[in-house]
Amino acid sequence: MNKVKITAVRQTQYPDLSAQYENPIEHACDVRIGQSWLSSDGRHPEGLCPSAWESIRPFAESLARGEGNFYDGWMRNPLSAMISCNDGFRPVSFYLEVVSEA
Predict the structure, then answer these.
(1) DSSP H helices in the chain
(2) Phi, psi (degrees; rounded to nearest 5) at 37
(3) CA 57, 86, 8 angle in degrees (round to 5)?
């Protein structure tokens, strides 16, 4: 199986949505832009937010199996994907890419 590198590339915040709908929380996200993790055999890498992993997991597992070319040519690199976590108030975009092929 392939190893898949997961890199946090951008975080967006929607303060208007937070103000309108979210209960105040002190600490929402530990992810830093540029931070990366390595998924081996399509498994959850240690230290990656479990909620973010649930959004990323199907793509990471497919890439680990050697699949790719999602949505018929969506990405320039067919062995990659750009996936955002499911936080509607401050989503983080992650770039997934195969870094070693089996």
Answers:
(1) 15-21, 50-64
(2) -135, 160
(3) 70
- Nearest alpha carbon to residue 9 among 80, 62, 63: 80
What's the pLDDT band for 26 if we cut at 50, 70, 90? confident
Which tokens hold the place of 46?
A: 């240690």
Distance CA 95, CA 101 (A): 17
Determine the Cα–Cα distance for residues 61 and 18; give it in Å rounded to an integer.
Answer: 32
The torsion angles phi and psi of 94, rounded to 5 degrees, stand at: -120, 135
pLDDT averaged over every residue in the chain:
94
Three-state DSSP state, 82 = strand
| pTM of the predicted structure, to 2 decimals | 0.93
Residue 36 and residue 46 in contact, taking contact as beta carbons nearer than 8 Å: no
